Structure formats: C-alpha cells, structure tokens
C-alpha cells in the first residue's frame, strides 16, 4: 500500500498536471515537471508538511517556470508557427489528468505572449481561482507584486482575446458548417463560414508540410483550406473535443495525420481561428486515445 506521502502526491497529481500543462502547453514537459515534483516531494517526506497541497503546487509551479524559460529559448529555432500540444477532453478520456480544468487551445496561444511569471499568475488566478496572497506564497513574491502581474497579464490577454461564452451546441454547429465546406472544397461556403479577421495556424514543426507563417484574412484562409482539402488523399474525419473546444482529427490509412481546433467568433456564426497540428511529435497523446471512425470521407 502507498505510504501517506505517496497518497498525498497521488491525491493532488491531477491538479498538478492541470496547472503545469496550462503553464507549458506540452504534455511531455508537463509529465517531466510532475515527475520532478514527485522527486522533490519524496525528498522531504520525513518532514512535517502542514499543507501538502500548497507545498506540492509551489514545487510544481516553480519547476514549471524553469522549464518554461528553457522551452522558450529552444523554440527560437522552431520551424514555422509553434502551437501547444492538444489534449483530448471528452468525458471518456482514459487519462483523468487530461480531463481536468483545461484552457482552450486558442487561449493557450494567447498565453504564449505573456512573460513566464505573468502566465503563472494568470493561470493560477483565472483558471484555478487562487487569491493574490496564495499566489504570492507560491511564487515567493509580495501580494502587491502579484496583483500588478495579474493586472498586466489580464490586460494583455483581454486585448487579444475578449471574453465571451458560447454554448457547446452553437460551437458544434459552426464547426460542422466549416467541416462540410472544407471537406467539399466549397470556396463559396468557406467564405461564408469564415470570419473576415480569421487566422490560421499550421504547426508542422518542419516534419510535415505546413504554412511557415500564420495566414490571416478570409480569402487567403479559404483558398488555402480548399487547396489542402483537394491535395489530401482519401481520409477519415472524426469530430472530437480538444482542450474543451470543438475540433476534428484526420486519419489517413488508419494513422492519425492531423488534428485541428476551431475558435468560433463571438456571434457563433463564423470561425475566427483555425489551429492545425500536423507535427507528429504533438499527436502521440491523441493517437493513443482516438481511433478512426467507421465511415470514410472523401476529399
């Protein structure tokens, strides 16, 4: 049977995974940080820890900050746009850690514009409802400094992504409209379902062919989507929920080829963001959890 220290860690592991993933945006790095947190925790189990949860979160967040700084330096040489690693958030996802509080992929992209400290404060405050004093204790900063970090982070995020709420049904309908137009290569239908300000990110990481920059504007995005759809061989498409939002996975020859996440506009009528992940290094987790649908959809 696990000892008391191990039970404390296992009890809070899901929370640790969620916080760290939302700070880093990659599953592999998150798992490394959670493992580092366990090793740090194991080394102090002989000491009296009054609040194991607070202690574990502090260890995990500070390990994540160190990893975030290393990762940002390595991304300077990344080929093309960098996107977070997607996680499946459907109710029957086998790994419960993946089904916890998850920030949308579009929001994770915005969080990449924050400094590491701003991102840590924003995630703890906005996604996990920690108050300023609790965050100050986690980061070893004063409450006043944390309030300032929180204010600046929120300002930057809301300037790029104002808050709005759409129900799942509305998200699903606009996503299905886009998929019907994209699979059929219908340029007029694509122009109708895309918002004028739409942006499209394609992350191939230099390992699969993808646009090397973010594509902006309805006409450019529509033409690119139609061209890609025409070039793909016969594929299977399956709608899924990724990072809490509408998405789709594409299989070619039974192998997961790509995942895409859609960001509906505030009016719920059009798509304003498309995030395509083609880099096979970022599809491993999804490949373990999703399988091709029975039906086949022609390009």
TrEMBL record:
The keyword Transcription regulation applies. Residues 106-156 form the RNA polymerase sigma factor 70 region 4 type domain. It comes from the Bacteria. GO terms for molecular function: DNA binding; sigma factor activity. Residues 176-271 form the SnoaL-like domain. The keyword Zinc-finger does not apply. Keywords: Sigma factor, Transcription, Transcription regulation. Interacts transiently with the RNA polymerase catalytic core formed by RpoA, RpoB, RpoC and RpoZ (2 alpha, 1 beta, 1 beta' and 1 omega subunit) to form the RNA polymerase holoenzyme that can initiate transcription. This is ECF subfamily RNA polymerase sigma factor. The lineage of its organism: Bacteria, Bacillati, Actinomycetota, Actinomycetes, Kitasatosporales.
């Amino acid at each position: 049977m696990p000892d008391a220290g191990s039970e404390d860690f296992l009890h809070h592991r899901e929370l640790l995974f969620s916080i760290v993933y939302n700070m880093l945006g990659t599953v592999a790095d998150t798992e490394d940080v959670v493992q580092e947190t366990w090793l740090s925790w194991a080394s102090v189990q002989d000491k009296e820890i009054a609040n194991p949860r607070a202690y574990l979160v502090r260890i995990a967040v500070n390990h994540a900050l160190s990893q975030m700084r290393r990762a940002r330096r390595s991304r300077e040489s990344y080929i093309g746009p960098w996107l977070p690693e997607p996680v499946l958030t459907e109710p029957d996802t086998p790994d419960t850690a993946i089904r916890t509080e998850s920030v949308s992929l579009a929001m994770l992209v915005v969080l990449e514009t924050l400094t590491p400290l701003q991102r840590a404060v924003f995630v703890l405050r906005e996604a996990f409802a920690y108050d300023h004093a609790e965050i100050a204790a986690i980061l070893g900063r004063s409450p006043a400094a944390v309030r300032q970090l929180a204010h600046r982070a929120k300002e930057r995020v809301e300037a790029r992504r104002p808050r709005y709420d759409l129900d799942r049904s509305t998200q699903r309908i606009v996503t299905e409209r886009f998929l019907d137009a994209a699979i059929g290569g219908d340029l007029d239908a694509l122009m109708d379902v895309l918002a004028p300000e739409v942006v499209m990110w394609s992350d191939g990481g230099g390992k699969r062919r993808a646009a090397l920059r973010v594509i902006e504007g309805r006409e450019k995005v529509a033409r690119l989507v139609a061209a890609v759809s025409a070039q793909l061989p016969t594929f299977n498409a399956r709608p899924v929920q990724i990072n809490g939002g509408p998405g789709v996975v594409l299989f070619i020859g039974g192998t997961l080829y790509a995942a895409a996440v859609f960001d509906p506009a505030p009016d719920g009528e059009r798509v304003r963001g498309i995030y395509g992940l083609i880099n096979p290094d970022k599809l491993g987790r999804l490949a373990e959890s999703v399988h091709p649908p029975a039906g086949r959809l022609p390009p």
